């Protein structure tokens, strides 16, 4: 079977970037984030759209997030999970009511702490993609076991750092570009003059937002990060500040010094533009004041304020990155995941409500991602590293009140020949029936990426297609 090897894309991107950045000092992260490199204009948007990646670091437990609810499958789930199963009676308030029921009477509910997201789902503003995870090519259980060159596994399965990178970039740790950044490459020309704001992270450095030209601009939950010595008196002296401004912003004859100053000037002006734009949308005003107080909510509040300021900033296409940690729950799963799911639900619900009030709910799509799912079996007080997982999509353009993909049976059978267990690779680890490539391609298509451009964004794109593994999964309007 022919398959696309992403390594050649990484080498090509490295060589192209090396040529662009030669002798500019752009190996520094700040320079890479702000240097003005060549445009890669694929489309010139006239409307606004934003993608918001919500990454759940540590590997979220899928089986206690989107929980089997019908009597038969919940009974199987409870038998397998034992002490980490959630009682069916606790799921009444978060039972999901899709407009099209799943075959075989299969039903699901969200974690009991996710009442807000259950309301969004049942109201048509959220959806679930079942059993999605990294795949190089479509793969059966037998092909996984064979581990042959014809059906390659994703690199370094079950490793936190590597699977985070594979989710974000289709390659293991050390990858230099991610699919959010590659989408940003195609969209940068829509954001003049502030194309540096195409890819914005409120959660630190991330390969997800790293493209060949579009690299992540990092902000805090409070706004743009200032260069203190250029924005206030130094040693209580305005004269020293003026001298620092002159040193940092003046034109230099030495090319390296001059490039450094150009980057500093861009950082200074971009921070000023963001700070001034956000001043018109204070965090204490509605709809931002309605956000709960937790780390993810604070990040999403800043994203909502930047979206509100889109006209002032001149942005029409943006990719954002926010995150939560703490999902590596090998123990204390029941207590800790309840807290995490509550934060996730309240933050995403407030974010969606804010986009409604801002009039852009159909222009903004938030989606979850994570290192991997976890084992269906319990290790006693938690679950261990897995593969496929269920993920959430929120927004007015999402074809909500629906579950997409294939509902996996509840099983941990280890037989390599049992057709019932084509879904698992041991301990209830899901073999993905939908690839991250398909998931990402569906989002990218809505954002404006053409089919011919998809291989630039997603190196495994050409390995998928057809009725069994469609490159458009269908969850976007």
Would you mind describing this structure in some detail?
This protein is α/β, with parallel strands linked by helices. The protein has a single domain (7-223, 256-463), classed as Alkaline Phosphatase, subunit A. It is 34% helix and 12% strand. It contains 15 helices and twelve strands. It has helices spanning 7-21, 29-34, 71-81, 115-122, 141-146, 160-169, 179-187, 228-231, 238-249, 255-278, 295-308, 310-313, 333-357, 436-447, 454-457, and strands at 49-56, 66-68, 108-110, 126-133, 199-201, 217-220, 223-224, 317-324, 364-370, 389-394, 402-404, 434-435. The strands form two sheets. Strands 1, 4, 5, 6, 7, 8, 9, 10, 11 and 12 form a ten-stranded mixed sheet that branches. A two-stranded antiparallel sheet has the order 2-3. α4 (115-122) packs across α13 and α11 packs parallel to α13 (333-357). The longest helix has 25 residues, at 333-357. The chain is globular and about 75 Å long. The two termini are 33 Å apart.
């Amino acid at each position: 079977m022919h398959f696309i090897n992403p390594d050649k894309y990484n080498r090509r991107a490295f060589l192209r970037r090396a040529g662009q950045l030669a002798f500019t000092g752009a190996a520094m992260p700040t320079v890479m984030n702000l240097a003005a490199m060549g445009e890669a204009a694929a489309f010139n948007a006239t409307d606004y759209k934003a993608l918001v990646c919500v990454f759940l670091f540590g590997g979220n437990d899928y089986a206690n997030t989107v929980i089997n609810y019908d009597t038969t499958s919940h009974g199987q789930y409870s038998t397998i999970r034992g002490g980490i199963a959630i009682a069916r009676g606790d799921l009444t308030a978060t039972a999901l009511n899709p407009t099209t029921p799943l075959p075989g009477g299969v039903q699901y509910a969200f974690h009991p702490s996710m009442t807000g997201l259950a309301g969004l789902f049942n109201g048509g503003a959220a959806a679930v993609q079942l059993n999605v995870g990294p795949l190089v090519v479509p793969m059966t259980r037998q092909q996984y076991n064979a581990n042959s060159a014809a059906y390659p596994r994703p690199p370094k399965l079950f490793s936190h750092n590597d699977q985070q990178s594979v989710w974000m970039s289709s390659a293991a740790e050390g990858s230099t570009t991610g699919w959010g950044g590659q989408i940003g490459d195609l969209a940068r020309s829509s954001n003049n003059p502030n194309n540096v704001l195409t890819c914005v992270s409120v959660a630190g450095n991330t390969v997800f937002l790293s493209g060949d030209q579009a690299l992540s601009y990092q902000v805090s939950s409070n706004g743009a990060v200032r260069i203190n010595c250029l924005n206030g008196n130094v040693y209580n002296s305005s004269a020293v500040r003026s001298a620092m401004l002159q040193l940092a912003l003046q034109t230099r004859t030495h090319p390296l010094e001059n490039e450094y100053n150009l980057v500093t000037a861009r950082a200074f002006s971009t921070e000023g533009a963001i700070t001034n734009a956000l001043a018109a949308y204070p965090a204490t005003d509605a709809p931002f004041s309605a956000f709960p107080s937790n780390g993810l909510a604070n990040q999403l509040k800043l994203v909502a304020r930047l979206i509100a300021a889109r006209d002032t900033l001149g942005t029409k296409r943006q990719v954002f990155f926010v995150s939560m940690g703490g999902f590596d729950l090998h123990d204390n799963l029941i207590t800790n995941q309840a807290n995490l799911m509550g934060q996730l639900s309240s933050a995403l619900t407030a974010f969606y409500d804010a986009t409604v009030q801002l009039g852009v709910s159909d222009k903004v799509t938030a989606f979850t991602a994570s290192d991997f799912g976890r084992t269906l079996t319990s290790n006693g007080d938690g679950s261990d590293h897995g593969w496929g997982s269920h993920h959430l999509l929120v927004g007015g353009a999402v074809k909500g009140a629906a579950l997409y993909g294939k509902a996996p049976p509840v099983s941990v059978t280890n037989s390599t020949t049992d057709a019932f267990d084509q879904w698992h690779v041991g301990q209830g680890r899901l073999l993905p029936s939908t690839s991250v490539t398909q998931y990402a391609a569906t989002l990218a298509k809505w954002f404006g990426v053409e089919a011919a451009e998809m291989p630039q964004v997603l190196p495994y794109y050409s390995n998928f297609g057809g009725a069994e593994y469609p490159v458009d999964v269908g969850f976007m309007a």
